[in-house]
User: Which sequence fits this backbone?
């Protein structure tokens, strides 16, 4: 299902889904400047981690090796969130198959000037609907650092509930695991 959707829809026009105010689309190498800005935001580094993306060339490689590779491998990934009214890139949101998690992970990150406007919730709702309706996923999870209360609150608004603390491979600290429903 994932590969069929990817090959027929998003690969043609880049759009994955949209909401009243937003378009979620595939990242392309042309988005390197935006990615460079987003992954070097102090809150990204604090809550997500330093991805060692410090030059436009690094950002280009990050897009190809992490973001676009997920589209090819899984048929989904993190998507660029743009405002419909002007095409402005606001952040990223989407689905990721992360090492150490059995389920697909929903995630989001926005530039500081676009936080507090409901964009993260709106794009995360669209991503969750895509996971359920297009990918037919029965369970979606999310992780946050222990001190990221804003993201935890947003996850709860989405209907995810805290399950437990976990430690992902290669990490030194526990993270909070949230899920759309309890594991069976």
Assistant:
């Amino acid at each position: 299902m994932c590969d069929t959707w990817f090959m027929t829809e998003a690969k043609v026009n880049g759009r994955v889904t949209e909401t009243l105010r937003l378009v979620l689309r595939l990242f392309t190498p042309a988005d390197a400047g935006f990615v460079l800005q987003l992954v070097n935001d102090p809150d990204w580094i604090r809550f997500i981690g330093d991805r060692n993306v410090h030059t436009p060339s690094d950002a280009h490689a990050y897009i190809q090796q992490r973001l676009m590779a997920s589209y090819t491998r899984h048929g989904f990934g993190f998507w660029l969130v743009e405002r419909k009214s002007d095409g402005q890139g606001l952040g990223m949101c989407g689905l990721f198959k992360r090492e150490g998690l059995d389920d697909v992970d929903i995630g989001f990150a926005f530039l500081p000037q676009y936080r507090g406007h409901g964009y993260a919730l709106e794009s995360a709702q669209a991503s969750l609907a895509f996971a359920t309706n297009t990918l037919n996923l029965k369970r979606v999870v999310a992780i946050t650092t222990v001190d990221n209360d804003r993201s935890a609150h947003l996850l709860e608004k989405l209907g995810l509930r805290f399950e437990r603390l976990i430690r992902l491979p290669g990490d030194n600290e526990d993270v909070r695991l949230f899920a759309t429903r309890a594991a069976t």
